[in-house]
Specification:
It is a single chain. With 85 residues, the protein is mostly helical. The chain is built from 4 helices and no strands. Helix content is 81%, strand content 0%. Helix 3 packs across helix 4.
Length: 85
């Protein structure tokens, strides 16, 4: 996950609507079913999907009252904590 990408996507959600990301995630998940995709291509799609889910999670925290910067930091700490375990 890339914090700058998640931050940008979170701003996109604020300016537009989270439904754009949800529909994009569905589309990308559908693409993963294409049998001719190479591992590298699947990795890129997976990275995009995980960043979008991250942005949705940060957006949810912001809607619940957490300041955006704090929400981003909390989310990344949670991700890094999960990786370390």
């Amino acid at each position: 996950m890339k914090l700058p990408v998640i931050k940008h996507l979170t701003s996109f959600i604020e300016e537009n609507d989270q439904d754009y990301l949800l529909e994009t995630i569905e589309t990308l998940e559908g693409l993963t079913e294409v049998p001719s995709l190479k591992d590298g291509e699947l990795d890129v799609i997976g990275e995009l999907i995980s960043n979008m889910y991250g942005a949705l999670e940060v957006h949810k925290m912001v809607k619940e009252g957490t300041p955006k910067k704090e929400a981003l930091n909390l989310f990344m700490k949670r991700v890094l904590g999960a990786i370390d375990q």
